[in-house]
Records
---
Amino acid sequence: MKKALSKLLEQALLPVAGDHAGRLRHAGLEQARDARNGHYASSAAMQLAGQLKRPPAEIAEEIAAGLSQHSLIGRVETAGPGFINIWLDPGALQAELVRIVAESDAYGSCDLGGSRKVLVEFVSANPTGPLHVGHGRHAAVGDCLARLLEATGHEVWREYYVNDAGRQLAVLGLSVWLRMVQREDAGARFPEGAYRGEYVFDLAGRMAGELPEAAEAARKGMGWPEDEPAHGKDADRYVDALINTTRETLGDELFADIGRLAGEWVLDDIRDDLEQFGVGFDHWQSERELVTGGEIDACLEKLAGVTYRRDGALWFPAEKYGDEKDRVVVRADGRSTYFASDIAYHYGKRKRGADVLLDVLGADHHGYVDRVRAGLEALGEPPSSLEVRLVQFVALYRGGERVAMSTRGGEFETLRNLREEVGVDAARFFYVSRAGEQHLDFDLDLARKQSNENPVYYVQYAHARVASLFEKMRARGIGFSPDEGEEHAGLLEHEREIDLMLALARLPETVEQAAVQRAPQVLAHYLIGLAQAFHGWYNHCKVLDAESGLRCARLLLAQASGQVLRNGLGLLGVSAPRSM
């Protein structure tokens, strides 16, 4: 509807603005905040005033005169310093109901993307422990973005990057081993820098059965390199010393097997957790495979003309390409860095045919963009192909009190527990109800409420009301067909009906806006507003007890409402229940 209206506005601008019309930003057409001031409003006259050297109010009158001739528009008024307020014709809104029902599940979709290929990488949590509630927000946001991009005509590929070749997996292996030692000697120490969650005990028990040679070694205990530092970098160095000691105790191969198996088991749990959360991936990219497959070496070889040696390490001149400083790609001991893996991974994405590399990352990755773009540019790829969306932290509140969380310390709420407490639908809706770059306070008590205070319940209840209405219709032996509804749609003139039809017709523009802005919260807020319009109509306008023609028209309106609610909720990965 907005797209059609924009074209009409552009046509009305041409005789008034001439060549200047093309310089306007979308003709300044926006949804009106208050329906009393129109359904849409344009600031085009004020944008043109300086260029045409004419009063904006005078320009607005000329544009309004041109607009008022079209059947899509009910009336046009000018206001203030030059605003153009536009009301859609009820007939156009009634015709849109027919389109909604006809297009069914496809309503709201478009071909904006032109089959452009977008690789969305999201979650990508290290396989060192269960997903926590912060990872859940990444999963919900990333999956919703992928759904929105698909709905707007993009070819989407979902990917999870598995960090299975770095230090963290060695720390996990050490943590499991030390818990195995504690199974034999309850007084054995456990360092602060290791993973302390309860899940490590479970992994240790499973490992004892899987690797009997490790269990036998655990019964012999181990030596400790030195007294443990209290905290900070010294604590990390102490953990690294413990890793080296454990390697000497077990041998490189057995120690590697412990870390590898533990990582695989954790990753299996992550896969299952995400599947239960309604999130799936087309590909799980292993960092270890990048190393063993030679992709990192190949990438470094391609960069050989720009890299340089200093202090025994190999450096990439990232500053030359817009980053804040140069970066090490190979350490003095010959090990490649995370940065080397990152640029090889993203270069590989481009080689696989992705036009856009959309990464959904944690807020602590703010410095990530420039360095990876620098690497892509040096490799001959457009740096603009990388797009990063940062997702802020989640704070859980229960009973008005903030829930304390510490991932390394083992004190955290898992996504699995959250799903069990509030359900998948509430979790997903709450996660995407706020812009990703903003902190999210997640009220567990509100998410569990079965009342209109809970936004997801409020929206889902609207859909359930539609289903209930049609069940009552069938129970009373009342017949209905969309053709009958279309025949009498002209009777939908009540103020509440106009409001609801207008809200329904805004789904396509909302989906497009949410996709273009990478902002699923736009769709979540739209659905809350749509539910409000539906409940207002349902409570004020009788349906089954209305006279025959009006009843058919209102049943068509209800059918269209249910369709739009299903389509919108589906794009958020939230169900549309038939009963509540």
---
Amino acid sequence: MAARDFFKDTKREKRYFRTRIYIVGLLVLLCILVLALRLFYLQVKSHDYYATLSHENRMKVVPIPPTRGLVYDRNLNLLAANRPSYQIRVTPVDVEDIEQVITRLGQLIDLEEHHLKKFYGDLKRKQAFESIPLKVNLSEEEVARFSVNRHRFPGVEIIAHASRHYPMTGVNAHALGYVGRINADEMQKLDRKDYSGTTYIGKVGVEKFYEETLHGTVGYQHIEINAQGRRLRILESIPPVPGKDIVLSLDSQLQEVALQALGERRGSVVAIEPATGEILVFVSAPTYDPNLFVNGIGNKQYAGLRDDPDQPLFNRALSGLYPPGSTIKPMVALAGLHYGVTRAKDTIWAGPYFQLPGNTRKYRDWKKEGHGSVDMLKAITQSSDVYFYTLAHKLGIDRMAEFLAQFNFGRQTGLDTWGEVKGILPSQEWKRSAHGQPWYPGETVITGIGQGYMSATPLQLALATSVLATRGKGVQPKFLRAIQLSQEEQSVNQTSVARSVDVTDESHWDQIVEAMTDSVHKPNGTAYSVGKNASYTIAGKTGTAQVFSLQKDGEYLEYNEEDIDEKLRDHALFIAFAPAEKPEIAIAVVVENGGSGGVAAAPIAKAVMDHYLLEDEYAHQDSS
């Protein structure tokens, strides 16, 4: 009854109706206001942002990789080049069924597991309109087979590109290093803007150290695409800036001489120009072909190199640690003179062995009957172990370590490459830190002949030899000789002094050099076999480093090479500089398990020095 009365009240009904109209009208106005505000935000305030998105919806930026800089040796022989190569690329947006296309392509070209793994990894990271390399460095036969069947593969094309190539194969592998395809881990660390479109990056050696110089600057193409992501036209192109060419101090001919002299043996040769620190020779044997790594090495090939017992991938020159053996005797002798522990003419009786006071252990000489009465000159010339056992005991380990550190033992040389190890220069503090144990006098004795904890790389030995050659004026070793800025300009790498060796009397240098010269040119010298017919003066020192200790009841046993497995035989070492009166080259040679330094290592150094110092003479003989 009440509801019927309400609807019969027309005034009241109209008032109620008008209220609802007002509410609805207010809501409509509010919605219009919200739309207007949103329109203002989109059309006015955010105009630039959405205009850019709209523009990008029809435009894409495609990177153009730069050409990598070339690498030359000191005589401008090409060590690392770029040569034309072909790669097959897939553009996902143009392919209906990628899995099926890859399967069909596998019938035309040789696709290995690492090719597919890399392709599918790139497929996840890149946009659909970007072409992705499936295989690089195609053979001519593969290019021909695909070209005939190209009509069957829309979205797949073969393009030419510049691929890294090392003309001298493995001659410079351990110095130069190599480039390889960028992996996922490297891509996470790189600036993607700088490496857009780039396939390769320096992996080791000089190629890695000078990556920024060699890489160049990426270029770009602004292209117009349709809604499906297909390329319509190029709107703008910014060319890439090629990487800079670099000139290294290496002499590639000397590199070949060193490798040939080493032959089938494992070892290393490092030679330095003493006045500048420039690396002339940097060889590790056996070597390998770096071209295998450029376009992605297969699992089988890599396993063959990795599992080879001779370790061709191991950079012995930079990372191989060897007891320096008797090659450090000239430096220990110089320490004795510097600290006043002995004088060059002081003599001792160097019998068949040395014993510490109050100790029954015998430290035997390499010469069974000993050397008799010797002074410093004779001790270096004939490499008397007993003399240096005695001298080391007088010096003490800490003074020896302090002095030898000036020759850069126990630290990295700072060579412009990647992967250098620092070796070990033992001291009391070092042993406490490394082993938590005290130092024993017997350890000082064997350190005096370069055994025990002490270890050094061939690079460190060569640098120490160059310091001897310059009478203590050590310079920074380096590979880089110049950077090519343009066809007319180049930036030359300046020589920098790394450190100097301080001695109390400059005449001490002459005494050590005289002894090293006698070691090569006197009939009783340990390296006389290479010095007797030399046409220039050589200052050198042989070394033999034990791989393992022959002991029984605390006494060294007689070494018989024929009874020992080849891998356990002594390493052969030799250091030298020449001409002794005005050095132009300093060299260190290590032959693993080679036995005598005078027999195995010294002839290798002589072959390298002959070629370097007598090259003009050889050239004259050849022409006549």
